[in-house]
Design brief:
CATH architecture of one domain in chain B: Orthogonal Bundle
Number of strands of chain A: 0
Largest sheet of chain B: 4 strands, antiparallel
CATH topology of one domain in chain A: MetI-like fold
Oligomer: heterodimer
Structural class of chain A: mainly alpha
Number of helices of chain A: 14
Structural class of chain B: alpha+beta
Radius of gyration of chain A: 28 Å
Helix content of chain B: 55-70%
Number of strands of chain B: 8
CATH superfamily of one domain in chain A: MetI-like
Number of helices of chain B: 11
Strand order of the largest sheet of chain B: 1-2-3-8
Distance between the termini of chain A: 59 Å
CATH topology of one domain in chain B: MetI-like fold
Distance between the termini of chain B: 54 Å
Order of helices and strands of chain A: HHHHHHHHHHHHHH
Strand content of chain B: 5-15%
Largest sheet of chain A: none
Chain lengths: ~375, ~400
């Protein structure tokens, strides 16, 4: 007689109730210690206090359609809403939407802005998708051909396109123009300045250091003021320079100084052996930089570069101070429009502008994180 | 083989065109000449333009009568004061808002940054949401939001919102209790100075003793007692010299008390909240940057969670945090120039008014740059000193 022999392992018991499921999760993540529990309660109280009124303001009480300020004003303020009403006035955004996009760009010509925008995003998106082919040609088109096309398309005055003067430009159009030009100019200029700062030639080095440190030491507002009041003084008497152009120069120079410092960080991180190996191969300075050093250095500082881009995008809102109307400026300007001015208009307009800025900046930062992960071949601690 | 040793006879001479030294000199000379020519050109143009506009250059205009009022001043100022004094008022306002903003942003930033690493899921998520919102919108928008969205829609003075300690909030600003210092108040100040000095001394001695004998000393409670107790003693000894002036509801506006202007409040809140998001990320990065082995080693030595943080993690994290923190402080100071958009009279706003009145564009811009560069240098000098103090002392 043989005894019974178990031929397979007994299946393991399920983990205790306290170690799985919702209860466990709550205990570990929200109520681990008395202090934790107190914090959780505080945070929950804060949410309960802040979220419902916010939701109520933004959606439930909000006014979605309307022809003028009456729709968003209480009876005491000369509107149709009951006293004590408070809600977002999305009708204001709906009515001013075209202005927020184009500024006062003439109605009949707005298709040109749309075409330019389609061209830009059509060229930009494939450039950002790693798998899309023809990266080189794509970049040449975006940074070489597109600016020329966009310039003639937006400014006009050629090929039967009526001339649209830049003071009429506004809204997202100005924001994107400033950002695009700022980015396209500041990256190469920043690289040159960074190389200049690390150069062994004293004159070049001095110039770069003085430029970078001066620009980084002063606020963008003063640089813009300088561009707007001093640039005309610098030109020969009688010559003027377009206001948008002045802002572009100010923003681009300002951004290049910051970009230079980011790139310098990357250059410093490249081991000396790489420079020496390039010299030993007999490469010229520019060959050495273009084929050996910069490809490695720029890859290292992609997060920093994108952060500069985000900073630049946010900084374009400052041109409002020298009397131009970018997205934020045009929203701000419309607060004083008598047919829409109510107590709720400013907050609504600003929340809308904030959302648009946030959308652009947040996607940029997420994209940079994605690229960083893609290029990261090292080991995380 | 025999040919090889002849190679040493003649140093390999590259042609002059390819000599790096010659190239460098030529390149620099060209650059220098171009720069000089450029500056000569713009200077000549500027002089011609100014002459045509009839503007005398030079800083003589600073002695002229300003002719405008400034709403919030730290030193006495009337419209009869000079332009120079107006600029000083503006500079002091800039420094004031920057100083307040830096303190608040640091406190909020550290709290949020630590919150992002909290074990508590809700706190972690809330901190992340805060950082992701404020990092991704322009500071000017935050200022506008506080100014137009929040502070301008506050009720009229008649319906002021009453807050604790007899303060009020309405569309005219924030009204606080104003302490009025009577005779003998210097004793309080003296008490504070002596208290701080003694606290520093005690902390030093305690650190020395702990290093020598390993015996800890309750530095915190003793210092707190000294810093708060001595001024209180002075206050009592001088016979309660401080009286308080409470703001009262007048017919049209609040009367008495200290008033904080809505412009200042909007700028201060916006700069603090905006910069706090960046500081939070720096703090988080600093703490994450301390190797995990450090806290594991501390736990292995028997240190509890609190002392581990205080004695092992934070000192090392500070080394990573301080340099980027400095640049955030500088950014906050520079961003305070956005005051001009809501009419707070900071350096740029006052300078802009002067620029419009006198047309002295070059001089005003030069003054701006000099002052901001000076402030930047001062802040970085201080932070470099602090950084050197905190830096790793290597044998």
């Amino acid at each position: 007689m043989t005894g019974w022999v178990r031929s397979e392992m007994a299946s393991s018991l399920p983990p205790p109730k306290s170690e799985t499921g919702l209860v466990h999760w709550l205990r570990v993540n929200l109520f681990a210690t008395p202090v934790d529990s107190a914090l959780t309660l505080l945070a929950a109280l804060f949410l309960a206090w802040s979220l419902p009124p916010l939701f109520d303001w933004a959606f439930i009480q909000a006014q979605w359609t309307g022809e003028g300020r009456e729709a968003c004003a209480t009876a005491a303020q000369g509107g149709v809403r009951p006293d004590g009403w408070a809600g977002a006035c999305w009708a204001f955004v709906g009515a001013k939407w075209p202005q927020f996009l184009f500024g006062r760009y003439s109605d009949a010509e707005r298709w040109r802005v749309v075409v330019a925008a389609i061209l830009m995003f059509g060229l930009l998106v494939p450039l950002l998708i790693p798998k899309a082919p023809f990266k080189g040609w794509n970049a040449v088109l975006l940074f070489g051909a597109f600016p020329v096309v966009a310039y003639f398309l937006l400014v006009g005055g050629v090929a039967g396109l009526p001339f649209v003067e830049t003071p009429l430009w506004g809204g997202l159009l100005v924001t994107l123009t400033l950002s695009f030009v700022g980015i396209a100019v500041s990256l190469p200029l920043g690289i040159l300045l960074a190389l200049g700062r690390r150069s062994k030639m004293p004159v070049i080095k001095m110039f770069s250091v003085v430029f970078i440190e001066t620009v980084r030491g002063v606020p963008l507002v003063t640089v813009l003021f300088m561009a707007s009041v001093m640039l005309p003084l610098f030109l020969p008497p009688g010559q003027t320079i377009d206001k948008l152009m002045r802002a572009l120069i100010g923003v681009a120079l300002f951004a290049s100084a910051y970009m230079a410092e980011v790139v310098r960080g990357g250059l410093q991180a490249i081991p000396k052996g790489q420079y020496e190996a390039a010299d030993a191969l007999g490469l010229t300075f520019f060959q050495k930089m273009a084929f050996i050093v910069l490809p490695q250095a720029l890859k290292l500082v992609i997060p920093g570069i994108v952060n500069s881009f985000i900073g630049l995008f946010k900084d374009t809102s400052l041109v409002y101070i020298i009397g131009m109307f970018d997205l934020l400026g045009i929203v701000r300007q419309n607060f004083s429009d008598a047919s829409w001015s109510t107590v709720q208009t400013p907050a609504t307009g600003l929340v809308f502008a904030a959302f648009v800025f946030w959308l652009f900046c947040f996607s940029m930062s997420r994209y940079s994180q994605y690229v960083e992960r893609r290029l990261d071949t090292g080991h995380k601690r | 083989m025999a040919n090889i040793d002849t190679a040493g006879d003649r140093a390999p001479r590259a042609s002059l065109f390819y000599d790096p030294k010659v190239r460098g000199i030529v390149f620099q000379t060209v650059m220098f000449v171009l720069l000089v020519a450029f500056f000569y050109w713009i200077t000549a143009n500027t002089v011609a333009n100014l002459a045509r506009a009839g503007i005398a250059s030079g800083f003589g205009f600073l002695k002229g009568r300003a002719g405008f009022d400034i709403a919030s001043t730290l030193i006495p100022f009337t419209s009869d004061s000079t332009y120079g004094r107006a600029l000083v008022v503006g500079m002091l306002n800039t420094i004031q808002v920057a100083a307040f903003g830096i303190v608040t942003a640091t406190i909020v930033g550290f709290l949020i940054g630590i919150g992002r690493l909290s074990r508590n899921w809700l706190v972690r998520k809330l901190s992340t949401v805060y950082v992701e919102i404020f990092r991704n919108i322009p500071p000017l928008l935050v200022i506008f939001f506080w100014y137009f969205g929040v502070l301008s829609v506050l009720p009229q003075p008649k319906e002021s919102i009453a807050l604790p300690f007899g303060s009020y909030l309405n569309s005219r600003g924030f009204f606080l209790v104003k302490p009025i210092f009577g005779e003998g108040s210097w004793l309080i100040v003296a008490g504070l100075v002596v208290g701080v000095a003694l606290a520093i001394y005690v902390a030093r001695r305690a650190a020395q003793r702990q290093a020598a004998t390993g015996k800890p000393f309750p530095v915190f409670s003793v210092s707190a007692g000294l810093v708060f107790g001595l001024p209180l003693l002075g206050f009592l000894a001088a016979g309660l010299p401080v009286t308080f002036e409470f703001p009262k509801l007048g017919t049209f506006n609040m009367q008495g008390g200290a008033r904080v202007q809505p412009e200042f409040l909007a700028l201060y809140l916006a700069l603090s909240f905006y910069t706090a998001a960046f500081i939070a990320e720096i703090v988080r990065g600093g703490i994450v940057g301390v190797h995990r082995g450090q806290s594991e080693a501390a736990h292995a030595l028997g240190l509890r969670h609190g002392p581990t943080l205080r004695l092992v993690v934070v000192p090392q994290a500070l080394r990573i945090i301080i340099p980027p923190l400095t640049s955030q402080y500088l950014n906050l100071t520079k961003n305070s120039s956005l005051a001009i958009a809501i009419g707070f009279p900071d350096l740029v706003a006052v300078g802009g008014t002067i620029l419009n009145q006198t047309g002295q564009a070059v001089e005003v811009v030069v003054i701006w740059m000099a002052i901001y560069l000076g402030l930047s240098l001062l802040t970085s000098a201080f932070m470099n000193w602090f950084n050197a103090k905190m830096a790793l002392v290597e044998r």
